[in-house]
Amino acid sequence: MAYELYYWDGLQGRGEFVRLALEDAGADYIDVARGAKKDGQGTGAMMKIIESESEPHIPFAPPFLRDGELIVPQVANILFYLGPKLGLSPKDEKLRYVANGLQLTIADMVAEVHDTHHPLASDLYYEDQKDAAKTRAKDFIDNRIPKFIGYFERVLKQNPHGSRHMVGDQITYVDLSIFQLVEGLHYAFPRATRTFAKQYPHVQALHDAVLDRPNIAAYVDSERRIPFNESGIFRHYPELDQDA
Amino acid sequence: MAYELYYWDGLQGRGEFVRLALEDAGADYIDVARGAKKDGQGTGAMMKIIESESEPHIPFAPPFLRDGELIVPQVANILFYLGPKLGLSPKDEKLRYVANGLQLTIADMVAEVHDTHHPLASDLYYEDQKDAAKTRAKDFIDNRIPKFIGYFERVLKQNPHGSRHMVGDQITYVDLSIFQLVEGLHYAFPRATRTFAKQYPHVQALHDAVLDRPNIAAYVDSERRIPFNESGIFRHYPELDQDA
């Protein structure tokens, strides 16, 4: 049976980290909120689960995955669950906790990216918090990108199995998520990331290697890949960008 | 061998969610950063791991757990790892993903609590972002507490095994974390939480039931429990609090 992915239609957002794993593995999945109402899909089908008063395990927010009766919410949790089924987790069980720790650190950075354009309230318009956003984005560029990406660079360098992968000696969903993170940072902050490849050569090389994977290359060129836009997590607001 | 917990000395912070699980289970553990330098402990011992250039799996930040050679970072990951060993995870493996999803939603709320007093930058003093903090805290009280805690209330009400636990029919680490979340919200926002028990009766009842557990009651009364203070996640700044 196909996996059912539930995420907001029209943006990559957090759902994209799950899509990349499903696409790389060539898994059979339905992107439910992007489907047609006449097929029982669409945003309404997603909201029905979130607002259900009888569902035993309701999710707080998209993305969530439905696999038969089980609903698995939260990106890192979905990937922890799917990874072994898709061949995208380390085989060594202990390394799965290393992978999960890295994925949660990626999630922390993604939350901070969101807050560069919404530092005061998710429900307020960007235009109504632009000054605060400028302060937060400057701190993100000056301090947080170096801290997070510098850390991921060290993780690659210190990986005892070689610096081609974030954990272990083969591809995992963590590598795919690093690709997406780097893509997004380049999109949102082209000035701040101008010297990225020089500063973080292992991270950039991992990004490039993921993009060379046939299923990822095909996906990125397909209509299934929604372009980055200003509804997502990674938004390009030139006034928030600056040289690093 | 004793578990080694690494977290900043002098505050509850994110480490407290792990401490509560270890304490409830009566596990043998060392709170390393709070130990003495002469015993190879203290903050220096923690920083040595974080800054190591040879450690195969470095953590991004505290808290992290060391179990033999394995280093497990990130609260939800630590609890996912420890839960089965401490008897604080659901026995049904599928429910473990439900528990992890809930724990990650608690982690998201904890990050938002932090940002009520540090909306612009973690590295800036609170005093230098107080106006932004007031805006963010108001949104947190008006919108985010109802959204998150209202969700947890629904989770309890809709649990097919009964509303005494967040998942399944017995105590898990998620219940312990809900206790800590409620404690923290009451500490930080006494005005905003004045009618909490009435609005969220199941969540409040779960908090009270956890506090009745002998090991938790003994821990909370012990010197091992650091009092809430303004270095932690939950800070009581009266100017950020208001009636809900």
TrEMBL record, chains A, B:
Protein name as annotated: Glutathione S-transferase
Residues annotated as domain GST C-terminal: 92-228
Any one GO molecular function term: glutathione transferase activity
Cross-referenced InterPro entries: Glutathione-S-Trfase_C-like, Glutathione-S-Trfase_C_sf, Glutathione_S-Trfase_N, GST_C, GST_superfamily, Thioredoxin-like_sf
Record's keyword terms, sorted: Transferase
Organism, scientific name: Caballeronia sordidicola (Burkholderia sordidicola)
GO BP annotations listed: glutathione metabolic process
CDD domains: GST_C_Sigma_like (cd03192)
Domain (GST N-terminal) ranges: 1-90
